[in-house]
């Protein structure tokens, strides 16, 4: 990898926010009412519905919209054993999740 490509790749992964994925709210959280619906006491309603019917977790939570990509970093494509922390970005663990 030439120096220009290397620096471009490092900048891409660092700016404007480190990494390639983020967690952000899907609901407005601007008012006290919003927070009451999102947390307590509002969160009790979907919790109780899910308790009665576990499939409702797909309706009321992000359960159907998440993926886990797990690696111990021992066989990173083209890099070998670089460890779990470096492997998180190494062969695109974050990239694969997008």
Q: What characteristics describe this protein?
A:
single chain, 98 residues, mainly alpha, Rossmann fold
Order of helices and strands: HHHHHH
Q: State the helical fraction.
A: 40-55%
Level-1 CATH class name of the domain at 28-90: Alpha Beta
Count of extended strands:
0
Rg (CA only): 19 Å
Describe the structure.
This protein has helices at 3-14, 32-38, 44-52, 57-60, 83-90, 93-97. It is mainly α and 98 residues long. The protein has a domain at 28-90: Malic enzyme, N-terminal domain (Rossmann fold).
Question: Could you provide a short overview of the structure?
Answer:
This is NADP-dependent malic enzyme. The protein is mostly helical and 98 residues long. It contains six helices and no strands.
Question: Layout of helices and strands, plus pairs?
Answer:
Blueprint: H1 3-14, H2 32-38, H3 44-52, H4 57-60, H5 83-90, H6 93-97
């Amino acid at each position: 990898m030439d120096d220009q490509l290397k620096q471009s790749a490092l900048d891409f992964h660092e700016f404007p926010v480190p990494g390639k994925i983020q967690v952000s709210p899907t609901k407005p959280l601007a008012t006290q009412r919003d927070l009451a619906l999102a947390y307590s006491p509002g969160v009790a309603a979907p919790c109780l519905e899910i308790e009665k019917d576990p499939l409702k977790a797909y309706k009321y939570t992000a359960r159907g919209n998440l993926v886990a990509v797990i690696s111990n970093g021992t066989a990173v494509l083209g890099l070998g054993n670089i460890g779990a922390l470096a492997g998180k970005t190494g062969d695109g663990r974050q990239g694969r999740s997008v």
